[in-house]
Amino acid sequence: MCHHMSDSDSDWAQELLDEMDAGSVSAPARKRAHVPKWATGDERKLDFCTDDTPKKVLSALEDVDLYRKVQTFTNLMNFMFKKSNDGFQIWEHLKPYHANLLAYHAAAGIQAGTLDDVKMLRAIYETVIRVLEDSVRSLGGGAVYTQWVGRETREEFTNISIIFEFLRERDDVIKSMAGPGKLP
Within 10 A of 155 (CB to CB), how many other CB atoms are there? Predict the structure, then answer.
């Protein structure tokens, strides 16, 4: 399925970037983390081994309170960077749906004060962006950033922005980035 950015998609993305560039001209309303819309079928399916592990990972990601369960969340993130039987890291099997769930948990955890590990949050941020970029890279065309941002809902991109803002204040590499959704 080829997704063309509609004018309204590019408008909200531009509004968000303009708002961030404007800085503190007028204090914008505090952004709030949002649970992404639920997916069905193949969008949900994780394929990286033949036992129950993919179902357990999916179940953990779909637990709307995962960000409050810091140890479980940390264990899940550590697991994401292990290699599966095919030699790829587990996170490389994630689809945009899973990446958006991960972004939600990170953003909600930042806002709830349950997640503040800069190294882990940067790993999540980079993982989310890579998964979303990879999801459009196969479609061809040069504007990978524009394509995946255009597919995100305003709420999904808000989650990414919350993580970015947190990291921009605490991570020197992210501090130099122009805006959310770009990788160093």
Answer: 16
| Domain spans in the chain, listed from the N-terminal domain onward | 49-175
Question: What is the C-alpha separation between 36 and 129, in angstroms, rounded?
Answer: 15
Identity of the residue numbered 143 = A
Residue owning tokens 């709030």: 32
Which stretches within the chain are classed as H helix?
7-22, 53-61, 70-80, 96-112, 118-137, 144-151, 154-170, 172-175
pTM of the model: 0.81
- pLDDT tens digits, residue range 76-114? 999 999 998 888 999 999 999 999 999 999 999 999 999
User: Are residues 91 and 147 in contact, defined by beta-carbon separation less than 8 angstroms?
Assistant: no
